[in-house]
Amino acid sequence: MSNASKQGLDAPRSEASRLDPDIDAFDPQSAGDLVNEYLRIVMIPDPEGAQHLIAPRMHIRFTGGRAMHKPSDCTVFNAGRYAWVKKRIARTDVVAGGTPSETIVYSLGTLHGEWPDGTPFEGNRYVDRYVVSHGLITHMDVWNDSAEWILTPGLAAEANAANAAEAVHAS
């Protein structure tokens, strides 16, 4: 039994499953598309518009271990940390072996935007981990470089220079 099932996170879908036997036909490979659509909507930002993609008891573990439960919690937090922020998705990985009841998806890329003082930034790495159950996101874990960049402002410039040098070397 998955952790999501143990915690009753997919209970609302279980009821739906009795009413609609096709609900268990969710293709785990489509979980990546679901996550990308979720990110597209929340980056507008339209956290309420993303509600139909999440489980009623979604669990979010945001940067710094902050517990949240809905996309609007993330939007409120980000409004205090950034003037604005968006994601550039480099790739979305669906972990092999997923099932309709539990599929793990990773979204990797960079953040770009402006700090509250208007200073622009880009190249801020992020990794998000999602658990998708029966076509709904039940868990989201978020990691990024923002705290390090805030604590050590010159670190962003160093990281961007290193990334640029790496790109030149790779070509």
Structure description:
Helices cover 35% and strands 34% of the residues. It has 171 residues and is an alpha+beta fold. It has one domain: Nuclear Transport Factor 2, Chain: A, CATH 3.10.450.50. Strand 5 and strand 6 (136-144) form a beta hairpin. The model is unreliable at 1-21 (pLDDT under 50).
Taken as a percent bin, the fraction of beta residues is: 25-35%
N-to-C order of helices and strands: HHHEEHEEEEHH
Q: Report the helical percentage.
A: 25-40%
Distance between the termini: 46 Å
CATH class category: Alpha Beta
**How many beta strands in the DSSP annotation?**
6
How many helices? The count is: 6
Radius of gyration, CA atoms, in whole angstroms: 18 Å
Strand order of the largest sheet: 2-1-6-5-4-3
CATH architecture: Roll
Helix and strand content put the structural class at: alpha+beta
Mean pLDDT, to the nearest integer, reads: 85
What fold name stands as the CATH topology?
A: Nuclear Transport Factor 2, Chain: A
What's the domain count? Answer: 1
Overall shape: it is globular
Poorly predicted runs:
1-21
Major sheet characteristics: 6 strands, mixed
